[in-house]
């Protein structure tokens, strides 16, 4: 079964500059949703790498995807609803071409009615005590699971769903209580049942309230994205607000107060305060504060009771240097007025950073660069770009005369194509980095044209199954050039496609009264390795594969719905003589010997088997004794591996002197830096990468003298 759901922002290669080339089309008739639907489909047909025929087959795939997206848990619809929907199974294409939402509206109407019914059920169910030892079992539904035959079966599903959640919370609490050594009076099972039944009721009432308050544009975008999803997993529609949030994540900066918010009953609650941000510096706004009203520098206080969260965020966020005034209720009930000056909040955990690993065992000094994403801030002249930042980190490490460098791309889902091309060029004199081909197979070779080599020494690139897109471009290019040893999981993610954003306002004339229409991100090209193969589906296979806790799980592009196929083209001409890995077999043998002798890696492999067993389980007992036995067995087994990464394996982790001054002047940076160093110190994968670099130094590589 293919997985669904939102894809990580990580799996994106962003290319800019296309929008100016899009020709405005004649305005389709209709209101805003109709214009958006028809304009989106027109863009997909015109520019997608593999356009779909908008026909009955398209309709059936959208039909299935949308219903699974709306009710994947099989909590709302019965077979009666599905029978009502089925008349439109092959008509969605015709409706879409006409800009109509008939099927969507029927689903929403039925969903609204069924939510009322389901809310009545779970309130009735949770109003009475459960028989905790009554037997039975519950199976988690998947996309192929049938819907309930009728209301009686669906109500029973809600009963079992609520009971399993109650059992889980009771068992968790009882395990906590067993560790209590204070001698306090322990709550009875009956009191726990009452307590958590009430908490579950509150949570589900809040969930239903939030679902009912969803803006029509949010629900419509879910339907639109059921259509984009059948083109490929990375093509999607963005409301203007969603695109703004994407840009913030991509650039790593925003202007506001630096607080994470969530809806709490009818108001908005602070769930965390960004360390180092304006709210954190002001010391007044705290976690668990409830925001009741917002006032700008000019204007009256706006009561935000019942206001959707994104509208509250709009009112609080604003340009650097402006003031916002919040009416806040503290956890003790005290109401305060808090003034905060907005500022640029830099999410510096998203940026490249480096350390020195002074290895006492191997007597080598290794540079370590962590790169969370290939970020690029195209909206700001002084914005941060990953290639520029990595170049700076390389210069700092070279000044320290490191013996080798580890570039960590684990969990790096990609980003800017321009930056990955520039960054690959830091390690080769010049030459092709990646080949890009559009749907007409018109090939373009993206090359590093700068003969300067920023670093010409031993290089290890760390990857895992969540290294995607731009990460795979860099790893593949350096592997093809024999320039670096790629180390990590069995394979990387396997995303070999290029997306571009098209502002739909620029593709349709008129309708200024309903613009902005939003943005469509669509796949326009595939990228290929310089050896001609694609990373699509297959990813990059590391030169040295290490055991991984999640190595036995099915992950990656191949597990998404409707992924594009693997293909290959003619290789490019490439070569380099900066530093070549000419002893890879010996490096593999030495690493394999260490891994075989390592108790930690042996336990990691055992844990991978445990993770696979638990992930495959989809049926749970509904009697407390049986459920508790299962949970305790699972937890006991999991606790056997809790200490896997507790030991310090890289004791000589040091900051570069040049980095210390800005870190020490900010207590929030000190705390984050300490966490970063501790995580590197305990990372067994970095430890093995250090030893591989040391092997490279000992064995030597085909290397030409330093270049500048």
Write the layout of secondary structure elements.
Elements (H helix, E strand, L loop, with lengths): L12 E3 L16 H16 L8 H15 L8 H7 L6 H6 L4 H26 L9 E3 L11 H28 L10 H24 L3 H14 L6 E3 L1 H12 L1 E4 L2 E6 L2 E7 L4 H5 L7 E7 L5 E2 L5 H8 L6 E7 L5 E7 L1 E4 L6 E7 L4 E7 L15 H14 L4 E5 L6 E2 H8 L6 E8 L4 E6 L10 E5 L6 H11 L4 E4 L8 E7 L15 E10 L15 E2 L33 E2 L3 H14 L1 H18 L2 E3 L2 H16 L13 E2 L2 H8 L2 H15 L2 H16 L2 E2 L5
Parallel strand pairs: 1-15, 1-20, 13-14, 14-18, 18-19, 19-22
Antiparallel strand pairs: 2-24, 3-21, 4-11, 5-6, 6-7, 7-8, 7-9, 9-10, 12-13, 12-25, 16-17, 16-21, 20-21, 23-26
Helix pairs in contact: 2-8, 5-6, 5-7, 6-7, 12-13, 13-14, 15-20
Number of strands: 26
**Shape call:** globular
- Can you give the helix content as a percent range? 25-40%
End-to-end span in angstroms? 52 Å
Strand proportion, as a percent range, falls in: 15-25%
- Kindly name the structural category: alpha+beta
What can you see in these coordinates?
This protein is 40% helix and 18% strand. Residues 1-24 have low confidence and may be disordered. It contains 20 helices and 26 strands. A hairpin with a 4-residue loop joins strand 16 (431-438) and strand 17. The longest helix has 28 residues, at 151-178. The protein is α+β, with helices and mostly antiparallel strands and 708 residues long. Strands 1, 3, 15, 16, 17, 20 and 21 form a 7-stranded mixed sheet that branches. The protein has a 7-stranded mixed sheet with strand order 22-19-18-14-13-12-25, with helices on both faces. Strands 5, 6, 7, 8, 9 and 10 form a 6-stranded antiparallel sheet that branches. The protein is globular, with a radius of gyration of 28 Å.
